[in-house]
Amino acid sequence: MAANTDDTTDETTDETTDAPYEDTIDWDSFWVEADAERRQHATPAHRFVPDLLAEFVEAKGVPETVADVGCGDGHVVFELAERYPALTAVGYDAAAPIVAENNERAAADGRSNVTFEQASLPDFDPDRQFDLVLCHATLDYVADAERAVQHLYDAVAPDGVLVLQYPSRLARAHRQRVLDEPERFMEEPDDFDAEWFAERFQLVLDGENLLSYDRIHDALGTWPRSFWEVVDKPDEPWAWRHFPMVWVPK
After folding, report:
1. Is cis: bond before 234, omega within 30 of 0?
2. pLDDT tier for residue 239 given thresholds of 50, 70 and 90
3. What is residue 196's predicted lDDT score, i.e. its pLDDT?
4. CA spacing 20 to 30 A to 166: which of 46, 64, 201, 249?
């Protein structure tokens, strides 16, 4: 399959160093301290992902096992488990507080097919494989994105699939425009927290972790495919070209 020329060029021109990049956000503190609005802003597209993922698996086959890496509040995991009771879903997140909170919710809801575990990228090693591995809106916060993609793909079972949303050069340009001109993009620009936004997307804004079709291919040895070949693309801004979403079969 030919690469998609919209974002296949080698996008990152900045030289990288061997030193690991510092975390952009203290996620443990975030999930403890953030109010409902800030939590929702941290994972806005997740509110749309369950419907799109359901459409995808209906077309490709409902998996028996799913992992959501960087699951945050577990919204996708809970939605999938409710839609497909025979499915086993595991949510992984780096922040211990949200993992504990999600497990408490699963127990309270009687969701025996849902569990949550603490794990972080790029060194994701769940010691098992899944029919479908999802990583959405998480690589923005991972410095070594290529190694993260490799570990995510290692967690995919044979004949399974990786569904991935990743930061690109177009994402970097868009984030910078939002930071420079919030009035163009925000309904209430006076409430825009530029300092938090810059901290949150530091890696992307600095060009430290940008990916492309070519880079994903080089990391995995196979071409990613546009998620929108299988699912009708929504009109919401989060699905625009600057937030590419792909699937990679195994």
Report:
1. no
2. low
3. 86
4. 64
Tally of domains in the chain: 1
- DSSP result, 37-94: HHHHHHSGGGGTHHHHHHHHHHHH---SEEEEET-TT-HHHHHHHHH-TT-EEEEEES
| Residue 158 domain flag | yes
Work out the pLDDT band at 235, boundaries 50, 70, 90.
confident
**Who's near 196: CB < 8 A, 6+ residues apart?**
none
Cα 178 to Cα 65, 82, 134, 171, 183: the distances in Å are: 37, 36, 27, 11, 8
Q: Could you tell me which residue, 78 or 238, shows the higher pLDDT?
A: 78
Give the strand pairing for 130-135 and 225-226. unpaired
- Residue 186: inside a domain: no
Structure tokens at 2: 């030919």
Contacts of residue 18, defined as CB under 8 A and 6 or more positions apart, other chains included, come to: none
Nearest-angstrom CA–CA distance, 164 and 225? 10
